[in-house]
Write a structure and sequence with these properties.
The chain is α+β, with helices and mostly antiparallel strands. Helices cover 42% and strands 26% of the residues.
Length: 145
């Protein structure tokens, strides 16, 4: 029995999109042979929110994203959508998406490494925020009668 199951595609796409671009570059310095289905392009998307997470949606504003799609020689397609203007980040995310579909067991440790690094960063950020937490106490005076 393995320590952790293989991640699902939506999970690894999320991890790849949120990974620091320089970290992806270190893990995948060169793209595998591929053909572009959609070369990297930058645009904007509308970001929506909900009051109390259940109310009617409302537009918060626009966010810059870069997307691309590629096909490996074996025919597997990979897609990358990332926040910002980094064409290299979107390209590496698309390549890793395709590689994960081709041989998930071989590339899952890479995704797991990125997931653990993101979790560690979240925990460190939460610890820094917790250190600044202020506890307020309400003192109540006696009844004035």
């Amino acid at each position: 029995m393995s320590a952790s199951p293989l991640p699902q595609r939506r999970d690894w796409l999320s991890i790849l999109a949120k990974a620091p671009p320089e970290r992806l570059a270190a893990l995948l310095p060169d793209l595998p042979p591929h053909e572009w289905l959609r070369a990297p392009e930058t645009g904007t998307v509308m970001v929506q929110g909900r009051i109390s997470a259940t109310g009617a949606p409302f537009n918060i504003g626009e966010m810059t994203v870069t997307r691309c799609a590629l096909r490996l020689p074996c025919g597997t397609e990979g897609h990358g959508h990332v926040q910002g203007r980094s064409h290299a980040h979107a390209s590496r995310a698309a390549a890793l998406d395709a590689l994960m579909q081709t041989d998930p067991a071989a590339h899952a440790p890479l995704i797991e490494t990125l997931r653990l690094e993101a979790q560690t960063a979240r925990e460190a950020r939460a610890a820094r925020a917790a250190a600044t937490r202020v506890e307020f106490f309400t003192l109540q005076r006696g009844e004035d009668t």
